[in-house]
Amino acid sequence: MFVNFTQRYFLRRALKLYGNKIGVVDGPLRLTYREFDERVNRLSNALLDRAVKPGDRIAIIESNSHYLLEALYGIIHIGAVIVTINIRLFPREILHILNDCEAKVLLFHEEYLPLVEDLKDQLQHVKEFFVISEGKEPPWGADYENTMNHASPVAPPEPEVDENALAQLFYTSGTTGNPKGVMLSQRHIYGNAITCIISAQLTDADTFLHLIPMFHVNGWGTPQAVTCMGGCHVMLRQFDPEVIFKLIEQERITKFFAVGTMMNILMNHESIGNHDFESLEMILIGGAPAAPMMIKEAEKIFGCDCHAGYGMTEAGPILTASIPKDHLEGQSDNERWERLAKTGLEAVGVELRIMGEDGKEVSSDGRQIGEIVARSNNIMLGYWNLPEETEKSFTQDGWFRTGDMATIDPEGYISIVDRKKDVIISGGENIASIEVERAILAHSSVLEVAVIGVPDEKWGEVPKAIIVLKPGKDVAEKDLSQHCQKHLSRFKIPKSFDFVESLPKSGTSKILKRELRERYWKGLKKRVH
Fold first, then answer.
1. 244 and 130 share a domain?
2. Measured in whole angstroms, how far is the alpha carbon of residue 113 from the centre of its chain?
3. What values do phi and psi take at 234, rounded to 5?
4. Given CA atoms 308, 314, 317, 322 in this order, what sign does their dihedral have?
5. What pLDDT is stored for residue 150 in this prediction?
6. C-beta separation of 20 from 32 below 8 A
7. How far is CA 369 from the centre of its chain?
8. Which own/partner pairs from 305-309 qualify as long-range (CB within 8 Å, at least 24 positions apart)?
9. Residue 455's beta-bridge partner residues?
10. Please, what is the Cα angle at 79 between 75 and 82, to 5 degrees?
11. What are 442-494's pLDDT values in tens digits?
12. Same-domain status, 405 and 450
């Protein structure tokens, strides 16, 4: 059936109600929603001029910028499918993605010319290359701006698009094998935008800083949500604390989303005390469970509401937000920070259950552990060309298996205790690595930590902590062990501590525990679990 409320709706609403308002800020460039809409139309028409049809996959390799933002609209508006490439993947992974999705057109920034040059002869389906070259003619391929200038700024006819039609492919790196393409439809994008608007309490008064890369689930769906409400997008090409602080001040940023590692870097930056954050109203922290200490410190430093959230690529992505309940406002500060650091309440439009190994829901006592399963209009169609992987990801009655282990308290607040694959089984005892990490992060010298299971002849595996210290700080293993004794049962205390300069991270700054584990399990035929 024909559906008006597809991706096009968000920009159509912004154009109608906020056309003359500055909607996009990218460095010195400022675009009203009317000017932004014209650029989107030019891209759509340029693609139509090259015989792009509904369903064709169009890939883009670009950091957060107005180019990436307009591609998110210009490609999907004509019924084509956008494939956003994580720029931090290995070249072989990017090659796999482009060939696997059968991309017909590739858009990329000139800084990635060497990468694309190396891959070009191995690309099996790409027919057209658009090069975003700012100020000079590219050595090959079509110049993006020149192509845009020759395309019509008038909106092309809107194609008839079914709400279940594929609109976006996001490739997520699994623990093994090649990246998997998560299929999101027009319905998913629309539904998640509404969920995002409610969870982040977005309005036209918001100026939103795109801190999280939009090539990863659109930075939590914010490109559509902010546009729909007529807010202002502020683009951030690279994560640079000084640039971020200045943007918050100069553009009067009201909200941004971040992952825990980003927050750690920002809060411990040497110049943070020299900046004014008066405009900030909300920071939503996701990517990994936040510690109450992080919420406490973030609120103190930034002077705004801070709370946790949870989502994943396959879920479109938002699943929860740790929004405080009004009738719990009388709690102490410590109780409040504990609750704001929880994974949160199921978001509007989302249903969650915590299922035990027996297939039944666990008790809402905040203690019993089960796997989070979800259903909503935002859950993926499946994995591109991987029907068996898709089938394994859902229960028999259609609930999506997240792989995250959690508890739920009497108020409905969910708390992730670990990824299913990250639970450490030591001598038959289950140890939640996240619980151990939270205890270690409470130490004043620790900036980042990852706790993993490492092989042990007696216990099968035991917890090890891999730590990044704050600048100028030093601490002995013995002191950390004594610190842990105050917070953890004896069997949960890491048997060893390693100190490193940095931890391996994904494109959205999530710590890659699988890479850390490989260092200690390499060469062993069997992993404990």
1. no
2. 26
3. -115, 120
4. negative
5. 96
6. yes
7. 25
8. 305/281, 306/282, 306/340, 307/282, 307/340, 307/341, 307/344, 308/284, 308/340, 308/341, 308/342, 308/343, 308/344, 309/199, 309/220, 309/257, 309/284, 309/285, 309/344
9. 461
10. 40
11. 899 999 999 999 988 878 889 999 999 999 999 999 999 999 999 888 889 99
12. no
Half-sphere exposure of 440 (CA within 13 A, CB side): 32
Q: Report pTM.
A: 0.85
Q: Are 201 and 349 in contact (CB under 8 A)?
A: no
What is the Rg, in whole angstroms, of the alpha carbon atoms belonging to the chain?
A: 23
CA-to-CA separations, 309 to 258, 324, 412, 513, in angstroms, rounded: 10, 12, 14, 21
Residues 486 and 387 in one domain: no
Antiparallel, parallel or unpaired: β 180-185 and 382-383: antiparallel
Residue 62, both tokens: 């670009």
User: Is the CB of residue 286 less than 8 Å from the CB of residue 343?
Assistant: no
Return the closest-CA partner of residue 418 out of 463, 468, 470. 463
38 and 46 Cβ atoms separated by less than 8 Å: no
Cα 297-295-497 angle, rounded to 5 deg = 80
Q: Are residues 397 and 293 in the same domain?
A: yes
Residues composing the chain? 529
73 and 181 both lie in a single domain: yes
Token output for 6: 């597809």
Q: Smallest Cα–Cα separation from 283: which of 263, 261, 257, 301?
A: 257
The alpha-helical segments, DSSP class H, found in 136-273 are 144-149, 186-200, 217-229, 241-251, 260-267
- What was the pLDDT predicted at 329? 81
Residue type, 397: D
CATH value at residue 72: 3.40.50.12780
Which residues of the chain carry a pLDDT beneath 50? 1-2, 175-176, 525-529
Q: Which CA distances in Å does 484 have to 111, 367, 465?
A: 46, 21, 11
